[in-house]
Amino acid sequence: MPPSGRSQVFPADDPAAFEKALEVLRAGGLVAFPTDTVYGLGALAFDVEAVASLYLAKGRGAEKAIPVLLGEAGEMDRVALPSEMARRLAQAFWPGPLTLVVVKRPELPEAVSSTGTVGVRVPDHPAALRLLRASGPLAVTSANRSGGPSPRTADEVRAELDDRIPLILDGGTSPGGRPSTVVDCTGGAPVVLRKGPVTLEQLQGALG
């Protein structure tokens, strides 16, 4: 945490700021950054204490699972045991607004998901992808206090979480819009759990 207690804000395209964000994450800290929907708040997915601090920063109930964002589809195997259907949908729609619910690896902390599944996605945003490809899988939730508005700018993140998180990467205004489609890939056919930009018809078309 900065000495003043305030969150530090750095441009997302500043190489020094990018390295600082990685340092914070690897030390168990939290970093807010832009995605293709809203600003997310991330912690290393396999760092139990860091993931727990996500709940504290947001004032969020621990019973709610946290999605995992990845830098590329191949990273899915690090956090999950994906079905062939999940792999095909990832190939068709990632990076993009599709969250796949897949069987999680046993070593993924219960703080991320207390069930046998986890939601995974590759966001379509250059700053997010750069960070994720360097950091590895991140447990990511919207960078706001629980129940507050989803932030689309670094200033909105600071208004919500100032003094609760050490670092914010400012990548300008996030596109906002609809949240990702969430689809259960653990059965024999895709089941849409939350409607979003990717439709069931598109999912079925990708699977042939």
Describe what this molecule looks like in 3D.
- The model has no long low-confidence stretch (mean pLDDT 93).
- This protein is an alpha/beta fold.
- It has a 10-stranded mixed sheet with strand order 1-8-2-3-7-4-6-5-9-10, with helices on both faces.
- The relative contact order is 0.24.
- Helices cover 30% and strands 21% of the residues.
- It contains 7 helices and 10 strands.
- Strand 9 and strand 10 (191-194) form a beta hairpin.
Envelope shape: globular
Q: In angstroms, what is the radius of gyration? A: 16 Å
Q: Approximately what portion of the residues adopt beta-strand conformation?
A: 15-25%
Number of strands: 10
Treating each run of at least 4 consecutive H or I residues as one helix, how many helices? Answer: 7
Category by helix and strand content: alpha/beta
Average pLDDT taken over every residue? 93
**Could you give a short account of the major beta sheet?**
10 strands, mixed
Poorly predicted regions are none
Approximate helicity band: 25-40%
Note the run of SSEs as H and E.
EHEEHEHHEEHEHEEEH
Distance between the termini: 50 Å
Strand order of the largest sheet: 1-8-2-3-7-4-6-5-9-10
